[in-house]
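During the practical work, I selected for study one protein's amino acid sequence and its backbone structure tokens, as given directly below:
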Amino acid sequence: MSFKTPDLCDEFEAELGKSVRVVAPMFQRYGGRTAFSGQIVTLKIFEDNTLVRTIFGEDGIGKVLVIDGGGSLRCALVGDQLAILAQKNGWEGVVVYGCIRDSGDINGIDIGVRALNTHPQKTVKKGIGDRDLAVTFGGVTFNPGEWLYADEDGVLVSSKPLC
């Protein structure tokens, strides 16, 4: 699927701010895919990435994982091993409201990644978090089952598929 977020904004201008929302420009680009899209799966965690491994172990074809990590800059929620697992299971991409690590290696993996920044430290492992609930950051609420589109120009969320 080929798309450009500016073109989608133009095409769905009447729906901007309603069924189509633009995420604040706060993310860095990582991963081998500059553009990715898919149906949203959400995860709300804080400095514990145990559930990320569980979700990335599932079939991710046509899906994007949106991780609300509370915006923490104190550790990384995704590293190269998790990115490899996600790619292996067909995940289109991941948006991390937090940090990643192993960014150089992740840049060579065929998956789209957006994150606030990088951090070399791993997380604690307590298995605490919530899945498949609405999460809000970047001025947008991400609902499970909605659609996410990310490219070089930004990230969009839509209540329906746009292309």
Observations:
- The domain at 5-13+26-158 is CATH 3.50.30.40 (Glucose Oxidase; domain 1).
- The chain has one domain: 5-13+26-158.
